[in-house]
Amino acid sequence: MATFSRTVTVDWxxxxxxxxxxxxxxxxxxxxxxxxxxRVGEPAGTTSPEELVAAAHASCYAMALNAxxxxxxxxxxxxxxxxxxxxxxxxxxIKLTTSKxxxxxxx
Length: 107
What we know:
Layout: E1 8-13, E2 20-25, E3 31-34, H1 36-40, H2 49-71, E4 78-90, E5 93-106
Antiparallel strand pairs: 1-2, 2-3, 4-5
C-alpha cells in the first residue's frame, strides 16, 4: 500500500465571531473563505469544516463505488453522490453527529 499525504492550510485573522480565514489546498486546487458565523448560520458564500467533510465523504464514496463496479465487471455511465453532514453545537463545541449519503447511478 502506498502512503500519501494531503495538506490544507488555514490563514485566520481576528477573533472568532468577527474573524475570517482562507482554507488553502496544498495542491493549489482551492482557496476557500471560512468564517465562524457562516459555519453555524447562513453560509453566505463561504464554506465550513462540515461542508469540507461532506465533500470528502461524497468524493471518496464515488471513487470507491466506481472502483468496485469496475472490479466486478460493471460500470456506471454516471454516479451522483450527495453527502449531508449534520452537527450539533453545544457547550463542549461542535460535534459531527451524522454523515448521510444519497447515491444515484445511471447506466
